[in-house]
């Protein structure tokens, strides 16, 4: 089991951030973690990384309790926060000091990532733009070859080339057996590489959707007019008409759109594959 | 990497993150400020020596180092707590590096108990020697002989305070309890030892047949020695015996211990 949570809860003082979270990830792949603002995305990642401690419930990552922060787990898990600290060093110096802590760190891959991301390896990070700093941090994170990679809003600050390189690196990572969890609001930027979608709402997990299964289960149609009232689906206004999602096996005339699916499962309360329950009742 | 190498690597990272320029600047300001404080307080408390000369009292010198110990503990712990409270989102950071609790603790001990005191106290010690060498003979600075004891007490203050504040940050809450108890015991033993060795000075002097001369002389400090015997008896010189730990320090330590325990119980992040 890679990640396993049972009845997980977390609160900051009296304020609940997560409750009754049940989650099982048992295969390598890329999972998109989506939730409205303030619903506990970052908190969940921190719990997985052992940077926050659960208030109740059980949590295991790679067979360890993250709160204990055992060495074996820390060497196989890397968490890249949305605004991480960056030493005022060059990427080369950062690797010189930090890489030794990660047994699977791939120096060759790090150099390749820096080249692909167009990061100067000899320029201190306090003298580069936010985007360049972000690319250097991503280069390091991807080069750790950690078995579990937790990325919080990784595409912020990346330009088009950077996002493309990022997606290619993610694919290479999963081919090497990595389990990657990406918390993001920008689903469209990573939808081509995601294997699963993890929905977080009302402080708990509302669904863990296999996107291969979802592509067969849901029908996406672009229509010029709004569906009639009473239609058992979800419709969203998009350029050129209305994009509808249905779970009744009707044929599709357009491809799966992840943002629309996310809205259909959260706001639209559409049923999920493998269940007859609506995810958000 | 073996555990020992990891400890050294963590220490190296933290030293490297400090930055040479920042270190030199902060040390310069630190030493300069303390020196200024020393001379200001020293002058205020200075007693007149022989005509035209000034004696700097030992306790001002002692206070300077004690203050250095407290300040270094504050600087040291703040560098950690800042990360703990405000910058927990650090992907690459000293406290979130892959290392076991033991290695993390070991690195903190090496860094906080050896490197930081060296960083903070070395300039003061060197300054003491330098000042002794250059000041005019009319200014009587405290003797260098009392330095080891003062530095030891200062180091103890630094270690005590920084460890107390750091315990909840660097180790798990369960172990904090054990550590706090050990600290209380250690601190109590130390204070008890100090009290036992406290020499009230003149009160302890046995009456002698030459009492008039004795009250005039016995108990007077002469920079590094304290005369504890009546001149009528054979003279016995003892190393300078410092006054008891100030009550304020004991109170602060107790407060810090309570705070540490509180932080440990409320601890949510590393």
Verbal overview:
- The complex is a heterodimer of chains A (281) and B (270).
- With 281 residues, chain A is of the alpha/beta class.
- Chain A has 8 helices and 12 strands.
- Chain A has helices at residues 41-49, 71-76, 91-98, 107-116, 130-143, 160-175, 211-217, 258-266; strands at residues 3-12, 15-25, 29-34, 56-61, 77-80, 148-152, 179-183, 196-201, 204-210, 219-223, 233-238, 241-246.
- Chain A has a 6-stranded mixed beta sheet, with helices on both faces. Chain A has a 3-stranded antiparallel beta sheet with strand order 2-1-4, with helices on one face.
- The longest helix of chain A is centred in the middle third of the chain and has 16 residues, at 160-175.
- By secondary structure, chain B is mostly helical.
- Chain B has one domain.
- Helices cover 67% and strands 5% of the residues of chain B.
- Chain B has 8 helices and 6 strands, in the order ααββααβαααβββα.
- In chain B, the strands form 2 sheets. In chain B, strands 1-2-3 form a 3-stranded mixed beta sheet, with no helix packed on it.
- The two termini of chain B are 23 Å apart.
- At the A-B interface, α2, β5, α3 and α5 of A face α1 of B.
């Amino acid at each position: 089991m890679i990640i396993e949570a049972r009845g997980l809860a977390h609160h900051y003082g009296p304020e609940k951030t997560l409750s009754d979270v049940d989650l099982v990830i048992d295969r390598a792949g890329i999972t998109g973690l989506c939730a409205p603002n303030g619903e506990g995305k970052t908190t969940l990642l921190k719990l997985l990384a052992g940077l926050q401690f659960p208030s109740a419930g059980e949590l295991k990552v790679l067979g360890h309790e993250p709160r204990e922060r055992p060495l074996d787990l820390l060497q196989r898990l890397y968490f890249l926060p949305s605004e991480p600290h960056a030493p005022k060093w060059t990427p080369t110096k950062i690797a010189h000091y930090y890489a030794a802590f990660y047994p699977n760190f791939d120096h060759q891959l790090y150099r390749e990532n820096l080249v692909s991301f167009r990061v100067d390896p000899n320029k201190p990070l306090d003298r580069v733009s936010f985007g360049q700093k972000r690319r250097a941090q991503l280069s390091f994170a991807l080069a750790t070859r950690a078995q579990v990679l937790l990325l919080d809003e990784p595409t912020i600050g990346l330009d088009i080339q950077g996002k493309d390189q990022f997606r290619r690196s993610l694919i290479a990572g999963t081919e090497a057996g990595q389990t990657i969890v990406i918390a993001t609001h920008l689903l469209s930027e990573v939808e081509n590489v995601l294997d699963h979608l993890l929905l977080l709402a009302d402080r708990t997990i509302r669904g863990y959707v296999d996107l291969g299964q979802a592509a067969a289960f849901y029908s996406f149609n672009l229509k010029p007019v709004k569906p009639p009232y009473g239609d058992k689906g979800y419709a969203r206004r998009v350029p050129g008409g209305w994009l509808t999602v249905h779970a009744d096996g009707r044929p599709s005339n357009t491809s799966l759109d992840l943002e629309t699916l996310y809205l259909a499962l959260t706001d639209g309360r559409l049923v999920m594959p493998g269940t007859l329950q609506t995810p958000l009742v | 990497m073996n555990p020992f190498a990891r400890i050294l690597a963590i220490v190296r990272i933290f030293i490297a993150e400090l930055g040479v320029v920042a270190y030199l600047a902060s040390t310069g300001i630190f030493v300069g400020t303390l020196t200024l404080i020393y001379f200001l307080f020293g002058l205020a408390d200075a007693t007149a020596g022989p005509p035209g000369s000034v004696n700097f009292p030992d306790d001002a010198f002692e206070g300077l180092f004690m203050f250095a110990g407290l300040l270094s503990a504050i600087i040291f712990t703040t560098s950690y707590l800042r990360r703990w409270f405000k910058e927990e989102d650090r992907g690459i950071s000293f406290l979130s590096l892959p290392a076991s609790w033991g290695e993390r603790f070991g690195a903190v001990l090496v860094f906080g108990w050896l490197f930081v005191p060296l960083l903070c106290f070395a300039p003061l010690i060197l300054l003491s020697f330098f000042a002794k060498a250059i000041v005019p003979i009319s200014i009587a600075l405290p003797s260098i002989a009392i330095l080891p004891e003062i530095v030891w007490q200062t180091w103890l203050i630094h270690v005590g305070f920084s460890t107390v504040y750091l315990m909840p940050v660097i180790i798990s809450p369960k172990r904090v309890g054990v550590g706090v108890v050990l600290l209380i015991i250690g601190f109590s033993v130390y204070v008890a030892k100090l009290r036992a060795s406290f020499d009230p000075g003149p009160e302890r002097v046995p009456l002698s047949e030459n009492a008039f001369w004795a009250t005039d002389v016995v108990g007077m400090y002469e920079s590094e020695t304290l005369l504890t015997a009546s001149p009528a008896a054979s003279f016995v010189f003892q190393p300078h015996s410092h006054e008891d730990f100030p009550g304020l320090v004991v109170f602060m330590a107790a407060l810090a211990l309570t705070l540490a325990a509180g932080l440990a119980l409320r601890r949510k992040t590393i």
